[in-house]
Amino acid sequence: MAAHYQIDDLDRQILAALVDNARTPYAELAKLNGVSPATIHVRVEKLKQAGIITGAQITLDPQALGFDVCCFIGINLKSAKDYGRAIAQLNGLPEVTEAHYTTGHYNIFIKVRTRSIEELHQLLINRIQSIDEIQSTETLISLSSPIQRQISL
Amino acid sequence: MAAHYQIDDLDRQILAALVDNARTPYAELAKLNGVSPATIHVRVEKLKQAGIITGAQITLDPQALGFDVCCFIGINLKSAKDYGRAIAQLNGLPEVTEAHYTTGHYNIFIKVRTRSIEELHQLLINRIQSIDEIQSTETLISLSSPIQRQISL
DNA sequence: TATGAAAGACCGCTCCC
DNA sequence: GGGAGCGGTCTTTCATA
User: Which residues of A touch B142 (CB under 8 A)?
Assistant: First the structure.
């Protein structure tokens, strides 16, 4: 992990291509950048060891799986020191895909996906607002997500 | 895209494994589930055609790349009908990794990554608050992200 | 130390049962 | 859904500057 590895233009090109499609053949990357496949391989290994590339995932379309509702929930705790316990409970809810400890209006900010508004309703009442450490919640429903991407370089 | 394809346990196992590691060999998936590699292949193709698997990405560690600051910004527009133009401008900012059209306190809700607080400051003043259609913004800085995952099945 | 070229192993794809 | 063969890709090794 250590210090930030200084990436160059070639690294940037490789990352951009692999973020777009993790299965891009090294030969293609090599041709696009005018280097040999071995060079691509060396660079990818370096990026992995630098901790920049953390893995490869397939991407799922939540809507195709029936998860039509995406929303953010701002959470206020009764006491800021309850943070750890609250997170542990939220972690047990598969619908929660992100949780952040934030400054600003809320103590914790989470992203949630459910199959329907009804399911969101039940989740909120039965599983989230019932967590002892939570004082109040505020829900922002995402009606559409026009931007969704990884950091660009 | 059409109707939701009904996935079974085998599909779920495959998806879970490939979300964890997109390079998991089909032979391994086959052995784990007591079926043949060809069956895995058929299932993966089916999931792709159903639009459930949308692709494969490498995952980047923003911090290893020097992007240490993650925050959410709630945006209120002067007029809700300016939505499209505001999104178009936000789309031009590489630091913006998500944008949602939301109900609740804000019209638009975005996720942003910068290398430093200073960079966030500049981004806010010079590139975001300077967008004509935007009336006001509210920033929530993420101090840590204890949960970060795709939907589980 | 980083690159270029080539050979080997592995995986995924396609046929047929 | 299972099994075998082909093609392609990744990986490794060696040579080079």
Answer: 100-102, 109
* Vertex B119: Cα angle to B115 and B120 (nearest 5): 95
Please, what are the averages of pLDDT over each run of 10 residues along chain B (153 residues)? 73 94 92 92 92 94 94 97 96 97 96 97 97 97 96 87
Closest among B8, B91, B96, B12 to A60, alpha carbons compared: B12
Q: Is the CB of A33 under 7 A from strand C?
A: no
Beta bridge partners of B148: A98
- How crowded is residue B99: how many other Cβ atoms within 10 Å of its Cβ? 25
| Neighbouring residues of B62: CB distance < 8 A, sequence distance ≥ 6 | A151, B68, B70, B113
**Burial of residue A115 (number of CB atoms within 10 Å: 0-12, 13-18, 19+):** middle
Closest chain A C-alpha to B34 CA, distance in angstroms: 22
Could you give phi then psi for residue B24, rounded to 5 degrees? -55, 125
pLDDT confidence tier of residue A1, bands split at 50, 70 and 90? very low
Cα-Cα-Cα-Cα torsion B26, B31, B36, B38, nearest 10 degrees, comes to 0
Q: Is the CB of A50 under 7 A from strand C?
A: no
Residue B91 contacts residue A147 (beta carbons within 8 Å)? yes
- pLDDT-derived band at A152 (thresholds 50, 70, 90) equals confident
Minimal Cα–Cα distance from B19 to chain A, Å?
Answer: 5
With a CB-CB cutoff of 8 Å, which residues 109-138 of chain A face chain B? 109-110, 113, 138
Task: Give the residue with minimal CA–C1' separation from C4.
Answer: A36
